[in-house]
Amino acid sequence: MGRLKKLNHRIISIKPQRSKNRFNITLESGDVFGISEDVLISSKLSEGKYVSDKELGMITNHEVHQKIKEKVLHLLSFRARSRFELYTRLLRKGFDRSKISNVIDELEEKGYIDDKEFSKMYATHLIRSKLLGKIAVKYQFKKHQIASDILDPILDELYIKYPIEELIKRIILKKEQKLSPELIKDKKLIDHIKRKGYSWGEITSVISSF
Fold first, then answer.
1. How many CB atoms sit inside 10 A of residue 64's CB?
2. Predicted TM-score (pTM) of this structure
């Protein structure tokens, strides 16, 4: 009977925090911990109820899972993000690797995280709006660690929709330059186009075609 008392903890109060949808749980031992409303409801906690050490561990794990999920959904509310970007952001906040992976797997399964859709959206922005060539686009994607079998077909399709020649022409025209073969002698312009992610061969091919 004495062992039973050590393994069980009586809840003496459940009070709302100032933070929205969060509560403080006070145990008879004097220990206090905070949980979200979702965890409170799903754990069926109430004042006077006894919970075991095992149940407290499960509640704690559930709370961490919920906290990670809320942070992921908050980040996704601003813009689409890759799986790896979310993982590294949460890792820097000090969350456990396996718990982060579990949440990301869950949200990926539900369609909240989709590396293919993210890659289409991000690559389209880099190509259509930033006028970047394939070299620069792939460099920007390094930090997202998107698999080549996902990224390469997307880039191939986008560079058909937005041809290299047209992109380079737009870069030149934005610099208020007239389209002419003489532009090949403009080192400053050529270096600018190179920094946009185009190879020397792509640049000379386009300019020589004017």
1. 17
2. 0.81
The size of the chain, in residues, is 210
Round to whole Å and give the CA distance between 196 and 98. 38
Residues 203, 208, 209: CA angle, nearest 5 degrees: 105
First CA to last CA across the chain, in angstroms? 92
Look at the block and give the residue holding tokens 């009070």.
15
Q: What is the mean pLDDT of the chain?
A: 92
Q: What is the pLDDT of residues 15-38, one digit of tens each?
A: 998 877 889 999 998 889 888 888
d(CA 115, CA 145): 10
Domains of the chain with CATH codes? 2-109 (1.10.10.10), 115-208 (no CATH)
Question: Tokens at residue 74, please?
Answer: 């908050």
